[in-house]
Inverse folding.
């Protein structure tokens, strides 16, 4: 690649991917599938309008209204014909916070599926055009500093779509050391597109400088932890060898086939893990484990991070779904600020911590599957206090400004 133009081209490519995956996929498509197609088990969605766009006058008109209230709503009505909504069976499947269908299946299909689908589409274009191998060569020198090589660009880029999916692809790396480092960095410092979309929108509302600081902190932590891991972990990193194909116009048939098989693979591998994670969350909720963790974590959140106690729930929620955790924290800070408005420094600290925080439950199960329970729990034990430590240090430096 051209030594001068390579990085500007990379920025443009990442911006296009963000707009496609984070904007249209994680925004428009996810909102439609989650709120209109799947909906809520107790509240009707209200249906949706189908529009017709007339290009000559550049206006759109409502063609028809579809009075569909959502799969979960109709399923909830059917279930309530047999059992009460307070019944444990109803809650197991259709509870708004931890139901297997309302949360687990809806999250996997209505939320992750559109994101993954569009990301695999963009990834297929990069791969078929010959750009991806060149990107791997370009980042190889940087990645060697953190114990990886250019081949690790595959899971790292995929992590911007879904960390659960990306963790599965770390198996392409040649050595055990590389796979552990890549898994750790994905769990620690690579936000998925849904979370990144929420964070960029939220931080953008308080000023672009805060988003720039956020990106700087996350990138420096990725490089620092990667470098530290490369020195501490035993083993060796492999040499980087990759064939560089010529640039070419991507073929639609190739992209379609690759996207289809990759999405099918993801659904087969990941959906059961999302369901399992939701089941664990349901059991933990019923046993009062989450309430206990919330009470225990509140002093740390308040005294060390300088955040309102109300944000503790957002961090707990982030263990199931990272973007919901970010939204919950934003709403808590907004309510706490009242008429004075949200404190941008508190917002920055909280979003840095939720990004570096423990991986979502589905990703954690994949970490156990790929790296073993011992390594997964060791990563968990490192990430949890480290993310809070970084947040506390950031709070201190922001207090000096």
């Amino acid at each position: 690649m051209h030594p001068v133009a390579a990085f500007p081209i990379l920025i443009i490519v990442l911006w296009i991917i963000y707009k496609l995956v984070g904007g249209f996929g994680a925004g428009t498509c996810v909102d439609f599938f989650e709120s209109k197609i799947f909906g809520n088990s107790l509240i009707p969605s209200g249906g949706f309008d189908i529009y017709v766009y007339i290009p000559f006058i550049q206006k759109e008109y409502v063609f028809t209204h579809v009075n569909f209230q959502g799969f979960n709503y109709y399923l909830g009505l059917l279930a309530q014909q047999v059992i009460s909504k307070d019944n444990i069976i109803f809650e197991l499947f259709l509870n708004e916070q931890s139901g297997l269908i309302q949360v687990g299946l809806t999250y996997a299909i209505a939320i992750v599926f559109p994101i993954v689908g569009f990301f695999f589409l963009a990834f297929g274009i990069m791969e078929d055009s010959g750009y991806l191998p060149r990107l791997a060569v370009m980042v190889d020198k940087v990645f060697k500093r953190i114990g990886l090589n250019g081949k690790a660009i595959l899971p790292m880029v995929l992590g911007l779509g879904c960390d659960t999916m990306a963790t599965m692809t770390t198996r392409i790396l040649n050595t055990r050391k590389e796979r552990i480092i890549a898994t750790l960095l994905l769990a620690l410092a690579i936000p998925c597109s849904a979370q990144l979309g929420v964070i960029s929108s939220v931080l953008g509302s308080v000023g672009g400088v805060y988003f720039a600081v956020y990106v700087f902190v996350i990138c420096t932590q990725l490089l620092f932890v990667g470098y530290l891991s490369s020195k501490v972990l035993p083993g060796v990193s492999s040499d980087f060898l990759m064939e560089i194909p010529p640039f070419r116009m991507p073929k639609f048939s190739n992209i379609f086939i690759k996207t289809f098989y990759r999405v099918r693979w993801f659904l087969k591998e990941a959906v059961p893990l999302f369901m399992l994670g939701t089941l664990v969350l349901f059991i933990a909720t019923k046993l009062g484990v989450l309430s206990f963790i919330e009470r225990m974590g509140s002093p740390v959140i308040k005294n060390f991070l300088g955040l309102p106690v109300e944000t503790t729930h957002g961090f707990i929620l982030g263990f199931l779904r990272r973007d919901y955790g970010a939204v919950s924290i934003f709403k808590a800070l907004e309510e706490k600020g009242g008429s004075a408005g949200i404190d941008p420094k508190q917002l920055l600290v909280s979003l840095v911590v939720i990004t570096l925080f423990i991986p979502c439950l589905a990703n954690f199960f994949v970490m156990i599957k790929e790296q073993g329970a011992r390594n997964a729990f060791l990563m968990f034990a490192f990430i949890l206090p480290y993310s809070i430590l970084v947040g506390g240090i950031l709070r201190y430096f922001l207090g000096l400004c």
Q: What stands out?
A: Residues 71 and 158 are 30 Å apart (CA to CA). The first helix runs from residue 6 to 38.
